[in-house]
């Protein structure tokens, strides 16, 4: 089974920074993209950022200019650098990996890491 291991969440004051990490096991599989999603209590899970194996990135409007997603292809690792954090960024952040095995694309999810931004 593919496992995603996340780290880096915590409690930070508004304006502060955190860096989230996500490591995917079983690097023999080709990862097409890694994504970050977040979910606040009582809310749906929303897309935050994506990085593809080719290095292209996509951000949701509310984090563009503040968050940066990056990747380490050799280690199947994705990072989310979060700067100038706001209270509305408070959520559980989930890592997602899209892995191509043959002709089939599989989705894998981490357990989530809590990010709390105080005002």
Structural write-up:
With 119 residues, this protein is mainly beta. The protein contains no helices and eleven strands. The strands form two sheets. Strands 2, 4, 5, 6, 9, 10 and 11 form a seven-stranded mixed sheet that branches. The chain starts with a strand and ends with a strand. 29% of the residues are buried. The model has no long low-confidence stretch (mean pLDDT 93).
Shape: elongated
The total beta strand count reads 11
Largest sheet: 7 strands, mixed
- Share in β-strands: over 45%
The count of helical stretches stands at 0
State the order of secondary-structure elements, H for helix, E for strand: EEEEEEEEEEE
- Radius of gyration based on Cα positions: 14 Å
What is the straight-line distance between the termini?
A: 40 Å
Helix percentage: under 10%
Give the structural class: mainly beta
Uncertain parts: none
On the 0 to 100 scale, the average pLDDT is 93
